[in-house]
Amino acid sequence: MIGARLAPAPNDDLAIDERIDARQGPPRWHTVPPPPPPPPKLRIVRDYGSLFEVLRCAPPVEPVGIDRIVQAAALVTEVPAEIILSYRRKHARIRQIVYFLACETGRWSLPVIGRRLGRDHTTVLHGRDLIGHLIERDAEMAETVARVRAAVGESP
Question: What's the pLDDT score for residue 55?
Fold first, then answer.
């Protein structure tokens, strides 16, 4: 039987497929995942009485705005707000105090403060850091910043 060829059985391919399917199960792309479990049932309890009491007793808090900080700096330093916001170098320290106090509130990012005051965020960053260092070294600067901070708290 040298050189003889074996002819495949007529259903040989089908038999192989059946054996593979029986061993591995159905193809993976035909399987459907099981449905997720139902969410747990929650019971919502509303107690508005205690929250109402807390809100009623708390004094109204008005958020400090950048314009309010500028007005307080203008009041303390006796320099008009328009000049504080101008590009004059003579009043740069007052502007930097405004940057410092605006960053201190933590409500705004450096780019937002810069846009509101017509400056770049790196200018605000430099001014904030500079005033922070000057407060530690210069008592007069610390007093000025404290007066502006107090004026921000008092101004309407």
Answer: 56
Can you list the domains of the chain with their CATH numbers? Answer: 66-154 (1.10.1750.10)
Tell me the C-alpha distance between 76 and 150, whole Å. 10
- Residue 105 CB partners (closer than 8 Å, separation 6+): 64
Integer angstrom CA distances of residue 3 from 6, 9, 12, 135: 10, 19, 22, 101
144 in Cβ contact with 91 (< 8 Å): no
* Tally of CB atoms within 10 A around 113: 24
pTM over 0.90: no
DSSP category for residue 8? P
Max Cα distance, the chain (Å): 116
